[in-house]
Amino acid sequence: MSRKKGGPDIGGIAPEELVRTYGAPLYVYDTAVMERQYKRLSKAFSGADVKFNYACKALTNINVLKFFKNLGSGLDTVSIEEVRIGLKAGFMPEDIIFTPNGVSIAEIIEAAELGVRINIDNLGILEQFAARFGGDYPVCIRLNPHINAGGNSKISVGHIDSKFGISIHQTRHLERLVESLGVKVEGVHMHTGSDILDVEVFLRGAELLLDVARDFPDLKYLDFGSGFKVGYKPGDISTDVEELGTKMTAMFSQFCKEYGRELRLEFEPGKFLVSESGFFLCEVNATKTTTATVFAQVNSGLNHLIRPMFYDAYHHITNVSNPEGKPRVYTVVGYICETDTFASDRLIAEIREGDILAFHNAGAYCFTMSNNYNSRTRPAEVLVHKGEHHLITKRETQEDLLRNQVDLPIFEEKIRT
Predict the structure, then answer these.
(1) Is 337 annotated as catalytic?
(2) Domains in the chain, ordered, with CATH?
(3) What is the pTM of this model?
(4) Alpha carbons 187 and 289: distance in angstroms, whole number
């Protein structure tokens, strides 16, 4: 299909073709971008025995999980449901790490019974786990390094007031518990936040983690989480993973020499792998001019893409139906009975009713955070792989909204009356 100059293709396919086939709103993901990002990380850290565990909370569709499995990835999970999906996708239990927070011990026990690696971030949970398994089931320990990093306070998880991890200042308490309970610690983990640009932040956290790791003699791996930043705005910069890879592998190699044996270096990238692969396509219902603003009203809202409202996240928006149109200033809004503003005073090629807008960087924490507010149905998901498009999630229907509701017969008589 011929394309107007400036209209973004998705894996070589025109967005309008995808909308004609599947309707809008629509999430579309390009596996070529996922593979590019995965290989970029692999090359950056090639100086070490490295393993990347895809953080599937970013985009949990089973086909995406299978794709990363085929690339050689492990899987980072945060719920027992994600663990089960990972196993169904074909991951071996030892290739899945389970890093929950605030869940019941029953959920952790179930994960252990499924054979996956367990990452514990609570001294009380560690005691409960040891009471059940003793030293027979090795664990990983998640530490909180007290480093305030991340692109937004809601995604900064390593600071002193964070609910995540065992405080770096509690390591002596941790060591006494491990010794007295006979717990075998096979890994040490940290994750400071998301959208971290400064390489030095990662290295500072690594120094803290390596210092603690020296006190655990049975380690097999060290897990440094993730948080690599991707570019959202045109000309935006991302984390220099090549610089980080060079510096961290050198630091890690020196640590292994001092430790006395080679360990595995692990990371848990999610957004970095899938964010740029995704596009969210919506249709313009109407334009509306007020005394102060020109609105572009689309057939979606915070029920489908909540990041701009929840995190003040920026998503670049292009008009794929009129890419060469004269740029005008618009505020792009949704159809929900809340202030669901996707973008304010944004310069976009002239928008007309019926145009298709493409939201970029819609691969991570977009569909997975969608909901049914206002009794709206969630959109379909499509995967573009090697030039062909495939439906991977059906569009919800009205019946789906009522499927799990129980319609009580006790009200029927009153209704008839």
Answers:
(1) yes
(2) 15-28+275-402 (2.40.37.10), 60-269 (3.20.20.10)
(3) 0.93
(4) 58
